[in-house]
Amino acid sequence: MEISFADARLKQACEAAAERQRKWGQPAAKNLKTRLDDLRAAKCMEDMRNLSGRWEELSGDRTGYFSCRLDKGLRLILRPTHQPPPSKEDGGLDWQHIEQITITEVVNYHD
Questions:
Q1: Which of 6, 7, 36, 75 could hold 67 in an S-S bridge, CB 3.0 to 4.6 Å?
Q2: Which pLDDT score is estimated for 109?
Q3: Can you say whether the dihedral through the CA atoms of 101, 102, 107, 111 is positive or negative?
Q4: How does the average pLDDT of the chain come out, rounded?
Q5: 87-90, long-range: CB within 8 Å, 24+ apart, which pairs?
């Protein structure tokens, strides 16, 4: 899949090993690297559905976004790059047709 980042600062934090570890700690840094590698290897979001991290669609003010778990409450948040995103008749995102994503943040939104 094609991956972009919301901004250059986030891209640097996600892609540089030392920065990942400094910012989010060793377990989350390792998991983030794995998740990014998985995303790059995937053809579409459907390929991510059964991989580690509990990939899920978000709702409420985060409708249209995906999250996956990194460590404890820390989540990787991303959205389909193309807007409006491909969706199914029931209103959910069509994971099979999402081939480009934008990483928007790494956050613990449960705090």
A1: 75
A2: 72
A3: negative
A4: 95
A5: none
Number of domains composing the chain: 1
Task: Measure Cα distances from 93 to 16, 56, 84, 103 in Å.
Answer: 30, 10, 10, 16
CATH of the domain at 98: 3.30.2310.20
CA distances from 104 to 6, 9, 29, 88, 89 (A): 5, 11, 16, 23, 26
Residue 21 CB contacts under 8 Å (≥ 6 apart), including other chains: 29
DSSP state of 93: B
Residue 109, SS3?
coil
As given in the structure block, the two tokens for residue 70 are 């990194």
Between CA 20 and CA 29, with CA 25 as vertex, the angle to 5 degrees is 45
**Residue whose tokens read 């996600």:** 14
